[in-house]
Prior knowledge:
The chain is mostly beta strands. The chain has two domains: 227 residues, Jelly Rolls; 81 residues, Immunoglobulin-like. Helices cover 8% and strands 45% of the residues. The strands form four sheets. Strands 1, 2, 4, 5, 7, 12, 13, 14 and 16 form a nine-stranded antiparallel beta sheet that branches. A seven-stranded antiparallel beta sheet has the order 3-6-15-8-9-10-11. A hairpin with a 7-residue loop joins β9 and β10. The longest helix has 16 residues. The protein is globular and about 60 Å long. The N terminus is likely disordered.
Amino acid sequence: MKKKIQFLMMALLLITAMPVTAQVLWSDDFDSYATGTLSNDPTGQTPGEGGWYNFSVSPVDIISEIGRGNVIAMGKSSVGGGVILSKNIDSLWNNRTAGNDILMFEFDFYTENILSIVPPNTFYTPSLTFLDTTNSNNPFPFGSDIAGYQFAIIAPGRVGQELQLRTDKDAGTRVPYNYSWTRYEFFIDYNTNSAIFYIPSQNYEIEFDISNEIPNIFSIRLSNNYHNPNVYLTKYDNFKLSALPTRPSYLSTSEFVTSKFNVFPNPVTDIVTITNNENIGIEQIEVLDISGKTIKSLNYNKENEVQLNLGDFASGMYLLHIKTNEGVAVKKVVKK
């Protein structure tokens, strides 16, 4: 009996020690697709491989990328203009396991430096948009960014080397982008009615309150509103949709805490002051460059105001990860 009790206790400990895992609802790395045109039916009636619809005359291609396998490639065309590639995923999400109420969407993204390709004064904002199509009345089966709620990751356009993370109810924020393959994660937390963007390489996180309009029916839309006959402008790879019971432990940034901090002067020549008026104690500050590399880390004793010397830094944009006893705040600073 004693051995039986010990065995049961060990089994119970193993079960309780097991990590909570994501329920993967869908994933696609495109390696099983044939290279060439994915779909080119501008009426949106005939899908290509994987259930993707292309609502444009410009083709969307599957190409082989060295070191990655097959990827979606857009924008290389001698005819046509914009491209809209869409896929419906609402049935996948609505069939998740009960209690897994945090949606996680992951993908890899790359865009060329279009500042050297697209003519000045040309409107160009390639994006991945996550749509709530509940109230869609447009002719496309999976909605558009004016129908329902959208969460968009918009590549650098004529605005420079920054990526925009936004919802259609919030202007969002811009983060550095260095024209290389980058991993992005997007969450909808139905427990707190919030949307979160996370960039692992930069340890960057931003959270939006979406309590006024909770999305229910989803589609993914990849858009590219310019073309070039010589080069693919944007590429995507490694999509994954999951349902989680709890937020990943690495999500810790508090948008509330971020809003409480001031960073000045900005742009700065040498000394930048980081402060707040609510006695939020600063424990550590990490300075990251635009590639997401930590180049300086300083510890503090819960001061609510510190000064940081950036005098020996190269000119450019940096991210300040301000770790406090109430969460992590992220601020941008420009070094002259």
